[in-house]
Amino acid sequence: MDTSAAWTALASHVAEVPPMRELFEHDPDRFERFSLRTCGILADYSKNRITGRTMDLLMDLARAAGVAEKIDAMFQGYRINITENRAVLHTALRKNADEAVLLDGKNVVEDVHRVLSRMDGFVSRVRSGAWQGFTGEPICDVVNIGIGGSDLGPKMVVEALDFYRQKNLNFHFVSNIDGTHIARVLNKVRPETTLFLVASKTFTTQETLTNAHTARDWFLANGGTRDGVPLHFAALSTNEAAVRAFGIDPANMFEFWDWVGGRYSLWSAIGLPIALSIGMDGFRELLAGARDMDEHFRTAPFERNLPVILAMLGVWYRNFHVFDSHAVLPYDQYLEFFPRYLQQADMESNGKRVARDGRDVSWDTGPILWGEPGTNGQHAFYQLLHQGTTVIPCDFLAPVHPLHEVGTHHAILLANFLAQPEALMRGRTREEAEAELSVLPPEKRSALAPHKVFPGNRPSNSLVYDRLAPRVLGSLIALYEHKIFVQGIVWDINSFDQMGVELGKQLANAILPELLEGATGRHDSSTAGLIRYCLSRRNELEE
Ligand SMILES: O=P(O)(O)OC[C@H]1O[C@H](O)[C@H](O)[C@@H](O)[C@@H]1O
């Protein structure tokens, strides 16, 4: 990859791009040239270190990497997850019922809509109160027990769309094996009125099964009856045998399939908490928004294709400027969990070091992704964004309209949302800094001025949508999914496995009996020392 003509051309082009301030001064149409409206989102990518030629070269690289062919292959259900020999078909989860996607000769869209209509029935019964707990009371609290993709997506969307939530239902998400997590939730709910959704693609995940057992024990110890279990426990999974073995009736299981990656699963039965919160119509709107973006991604020419553009800008920074991280900064409190959700989507997908053929890559792959809502972040880490020695490309997101009616908050929020990318791009020169300090005596001025200089030329994208609603949220999430996909193609990695999470799990399984039985196995002196310390300190504390 890094020896291709497109790659080499980009490598020598880096030095040719003037600072952004200059580019804006010389081109009054820069915003028009480098912005795009699609799927309810205005994306301004003009505050990037790019010229028209940069974009041409980046699109050459995308073409050389075979992005167009790979997009087709994904949508058609080819087994592009090569290490697991699986298709990658989260896009089939949002197809209309009259469309078809064939996998091994079977139309998977039929399965998708069969499960959607089962979800529909369940959702309306729970929301209307027709679904009753073991004492005949309706459900008030839904506790989703899952981790990773079986937690982050539904949790992020339920929170993001809380405005649309049916207000007599409350949602809780338990993921961590740390018992504190479930204990705190169980303290807030009543067994009579609580519905537990055990969400796990594999239904073998230690955290989820442990938490689910704890929830069931709590239910039975607090007045719940064995006959009542089916009224209070449902499973969202691909693994019917394991669901049965756990004791959940398959009638209460909402199914999905191995061609849905965990981090791409919120569109499947894993989205049941979303549907319970905003209703099935809202959930279908979310799917429709993702479908809008799928269509855009599949059909728009690369030059006007938002996921491709954002992906290639990311490649530009990661590989040709060697910037390590990428910040996602929603100026929308409802998107509080969006960066955290994207961490799994992006870092589990593209945190890879071998190419598809198993050879070590000689180029950088996925960046560190992180972020917090604005304006909070401004009062925490933006100092580094503006004046630190490292450059962090940012995505700023904001709604034009708020979903509340409190005072002038939204204008202030938007002013900040607009000012930060401007400040990052423009910076402040030494002369400007000195001019601002003109009231000071010259020696004080020159002592202070360097601290007030902002280098500027720091890149960002701004994404603006009307107001946060299911449809545009669906488009936004799918935008990032496809961006990650394109980058994985360019980096020639398999974005769809996650083998890097295995080793730690295996070692934890080896250490657990040592902690329970008090014997130390074979470890390096650091790990052995820590185990010994924990065991002896625990004994002392328990005395
Ligand atoms: O849904 P589950 O099978 O319980 O998996 C939950 C999570 O577990 C693993 O650690 C994977 O790295 C994640 O990709 C996955 O989302």
TrEMBL record:
Pfam families: PGI
Enzyme Commission code: 5.3.1.9
Gene Ontology, cellular component aspect: cytosol
Active site: residue positions: E348, H379, K505
Single GO MF annotation: glucose-6-phosphate isomerase activity
Listed InterPro entries: G6P_Isomerase (IPR001672), G6P_Isomerase_C (IPR023096), Phosphoglucose_isomerase_CS (IPR018189), SIS_dom_sf (IPR046348), SIS_PGI_1 (IPR035476), SIS_PGI_2 (IPR035482)
Compartment(s) of residence: Cytoplasm
Predominant location category: cytoplasm
Annotated Gene3D superfamilies: 1.10.1390.10, Glucose-6-phosphate isomerase like protein, domain 1
Biochemical pathway: Carbohydrate biosynthesis; gluconeogenesis; Carbohydrate degradation; glycolysis; D-glyceraldehyde 3-phosphate and glycerone phosphate from D-glucose: step 2/4
Enzyme class: isomerase
Catalysis performed (reactions): alpha-D-glucose 6-phosphate = beta-D-fructose 6-phosphate
One GO biological process term: glycolytic process
Alphabetical keyword list: Cytoplasm, Gluconeogenesis, Glycolysis, Isomerase
Entry function: Catalyzes the reversible isomerization of glucose-6-phosphate to fructose-6-phosphate.
Sequence similarity: Belongs to the GPI family.
Protein name: Glucose-6-phosphate isomerase
Source lineage: Bacteria, Pseudomonadati, Thermodesulfobacteriota, Desulfovibrionia, Desulfovibrionales
